[in-house]
Amino acid sequence: MKNVALIAALLASGASAAGTLVVAGSGEPVTLESGNAHDSVSMLVQRQIYDRLITVKPGTTELAPGLALSWKPNRDATSWTFNLRRGVKFHDGTPFNADAAVFNLRRWWDKSDPNGLREFGRIFTVVPDFLGGYRGEKNAVVKDIVKVNDYTVRVDLTRPNTVFPVQMSASYWGMASPAAVKAQGAKYGTPAGTAVGTGPFVFGRWVGGDRVNLTANKTYWGLKPKVDALVIRNIKDPSQRLNELKAGTVDIASDLQPDDLKAIQADKNLVLYKRPSFNLGYIGLNNRNEYLRNQKVRQAISLAINRRAIVDSFWYGLGITDTSIVPPPLKWATSADVPADYRFDPAAAKKLLAEAGYPNGFSIDLWYMPITRSYFPNPKASAEAMAADLADVGIKVNLKTEDWAKYLEDLFGGKLSMYQIGLIGDYGDPDYFYGALYNPTSTNDIGWNAPEVGQLLEQARAGLTREARARLYAQVHELTYNAAYRLPLVHSQSVAAARSYVKGWVLSPFSGEPYNTVSLVGKK
């Protein structure tokens, strides 16, 4: 009987290990080069290819060992030492070790590093956005990166930072093969090149505008994939994603429309999933615009938008409104002195516009996202609703959009006046949201930088207790709420679904997860 049970187990294992998992992505990656992307589609694909020094436990924001088995600070948290995992190889067969870790860390951080390839437009903006600046710059967090021995790396900091390990768990910091980066040059991470990490899936081909093909890493150091291949398709339209899921041409689909809930639940071949809320959707207001540089105008826009009605209409009970840029799990980092939610008061908005010198209103562009995200599942319709609200107080809105890559380029370049955008947490700390939106290096889109906010964020990163950090973040919340350059709209769960034969899919609070946990049991 024991032998029969063993054979049955082996057969079941073989069945679940076979097949191709097809995922409906919500757009096309911008880049597959680690350290060089902000968007969630790029991050989703990169999570399959690369490992970081530190990762998180599936379905949580809790830190877990990745390519580093352990990490520890010195006494004042001005230095962090990482003990690396042994016996790991990149997909091209080259070893992962301290030299490889230093290679990656230095090429992101040091503008003069010959492997940074900045002459090819790779500027690694996540470094100034989250680590203050590049090597030698005034606000840079990292002072030096040191190989201690073959499997130990030390990162020395310019000042105390207790958040550093949490920051390093973000998907930006995937370890790439030094040999592949050097060999590919400008092609690395593009459809014309390759992407080589140590992760659970091996890059195969990026078919521009269509899909990214990957295969299982059979020698993966961690949990080996339960499928033979992975295809991440570019399907921008959420309705098409759902239709293809129903038809069985894809196995998994995320960022579906909230109003798809009933259709998913009514289909016996589908299973409904909800991604935990760890995001923010907001309206950005650019200080470079002649109207928006007036605080009363910004406050009037805030008063004119009926947030709750918009969220009720387009998020179907999956979204909440408040005045915070951090999601509910991080509420400890907000101020009790800031109102819990925004007022909807068109009369007060009109009064402020008149006081600002615009009693008859004005005309302005509102840019809406060309792709869906959990924080904006129906960008155009929600933008139309905002435009209608603003028209009621005399502000004529011209709705505009453009290709996603160009949208991001223009947004971060400070070229959009008023726009939809959002972010999904990439590490489980308030520093992610506050830093991504209010670090001195991350406010070019709104054209506003308050030195006191940057100073408070630095102090919060050095805080040794949650209580000390909470007091500092409360001040940041108050300052940014009053400035009104970023108007929080929603924190939301997102709708996802899979075919009933998909097993083991553990959704992350972040924008995506590695698919090495997923098996296809009975897929034909």
Q: pLDDT average, as an integer?
A: 93
CATH architecture annotation name of the largest domain:
Roll
Number of domains: 3
Largest sheet: 7 strands, mixed
Structure report:
- With 524 residues, the protein is an alpha+beta fold.
- It has three domains: 17-50 and 199-275 and 494-523, D-Maltodextrin-Binding Protein, domain 2 (3-Layer(aba) Sandwich), CATH 3.40.190.10; 52-178, Dipeptide-binding Protein, domain 1; 279-492, Dipeptide-binding Protein, Domain 3 (Dipeptide-binding Protein, domain 3, Roll).
- The chain is built from 16 helices and 21 strands.
- A seven-stranded mixed β-sheet has the order 8-9-10-1-11-19-12, sandwiched between helices. The protein has a six-stranded mixed β-sheet with strand order 14-18-13-17-15-16.
- It is globular and about 70 Å long.
Produce the secondary structure layout.
Layout: H1 2-16, E1 20-25, H2 40-49, E2 54-56, E3 63-65, E4 68-73, E5 79-84, H3 98-109, H4 126-131, E6 142-149, E7 152-157, H5 164-167, H6 178-184, E8 201-207, E9 211-216, E10 229-234, H7 238-247, E11 252-256, H8 261-266, E12 270-275, E13 279-285, H9 295-304, H10 307-315, E14 319-320, H11 346-355, E15 362-367, H12 379-391, E16 395-400, H13 404-412, E17 418-424, H14 430-438, H15 451-462, H16 466-483, E18 486-492, E19 494-499, E20 502-503, E21 519-520
Parallel strand pairs: 1-10, 1-11, 15-16, 15-17
Antiparallel strand pairs: 2-3, 4-5, 5-7, 6-7, 8-9, 9-10, 11-19, 12-19, 13-17, 13-18, 14-18, 20-21
Helix pairs in contact: 9-11, 14-15, 15-16
